[in-house]
Amino acid sequence: MKFMPINRQMYNVISEKEYFRRSTLNPELTKEISSDIAVEKDGYVYPVLPQTASECMVGVVDYDIAVKYHKPQNEEQVETYSTKHLIDFDKVDSAREMIQKQAEFEAAERTVLISKDNIYSLSIDTEKDSPEFALLKDAINKKQVDIQAYRGKLGSDFSNDLRLLTSSNSITFNKMKEIGGALDISGELILRDKNPNVANPIGEEIRTIIF
């Protein structure tokens, strides 16, 4: 696996041959996850762009019957898209190298995720939102994140997750675990007696980390 941070997004980098193979086997899925994929070619890494992308955007555009590369046009773009920034897990020969690569990946990911430019904020409906959903929204708001930077961690269901966060009043347990975990939020479940006088009391708090 190869990864590279470009303009505050972490891309999964594949060869042109692998991109064509995926497009042939499952074109619909390839299109769905294309926003997180970049293609390595001739010393540069090209993010997959939509067909409506401007010519000034560096990347590769898939026209179904052919692809077109928008190449770097200036020194800044040459530096940004150079393969010298690749984090290549395929070329790891020892546990030491794996640890070094993992540290490199985590440092790059932090650079991608830490930003105060486009703060994502959710409204909380204290009357309609379920308590657990309101709690998750509050945690996300307090993180002050650019939610687009977490697109890769949230995965192919990113758009649906955003719709859920902004247009629903409840969330399933599994989806809360999924979104919370992707946003680096840890959740703990605590069970205790409802009040001191219940029959057959637990007698203590029982807790566990659920994500």
Fold and architecture overview:
With 211 residues, the chain is of the alpha+beta class. The chain folds into two domains: 112 residues, no CATH class; 79 residues, no CATH class. It has eight helices and nine strands. Strands 6-5-4-3-2-1-7 form a seven-stranded mixed sheet. A two-stranded antiparallel ribbon has the order 8-9. A hairpin with a 2-residue loop joins strand 3 and strand 4. The longest helix is centred in the middle third of the chain and has 19 residues.
State the separation between the terminal residues, measured CA to CA.
25 Å
Question: How does the overall form come out from the CA principal axes?
Answer: elongated
- The SSE order reads EEHHEEEEHEHHHHHEE
Instruction: Tell me the helix content.
Output: 25-40%
Per DSSP E runs of 2 or more residues, the count of β-strands stands at 9
What is the oligomeric state here?
Answer: single chain
Number of helices: 8
Looking across the biggest beta sheet, what order are the strands in? Answer: 6-5-4-3-2-1-7
The main β sheet shows up as: 7 strands, mixed
Overall number of structural domains:
2
- The pLDDT mean sits at 90
Q: Approximately how much beta-strand content do the residues carry?
A: 15-25%
Write down the Rg.
Answer: 22 Å
Low-confidence stretches: none
Secondary-structure-based class equals alpha+beta
Give keywords:
211 residues; alpha+beta; two-stranded antiparallel sheet; 37% helix
What topology does this entry show?
Blueprint: E1 2-6, E2 9-15, H1 16-25, H2 27-32, E3 37-41, E4 44-49, E5 59-62, E6 67-70, H3 75-80, E7 87-88, H4 95-113, H5 131-143, H6 151-154, H7 158-167, H8 173-182, E8 188-191, E9 206-209
Parallel strand pairs: 2-3, 4-5
Antiparallel strand pairs: 1-2, 1-7, 3-4, 5-6, 8-9
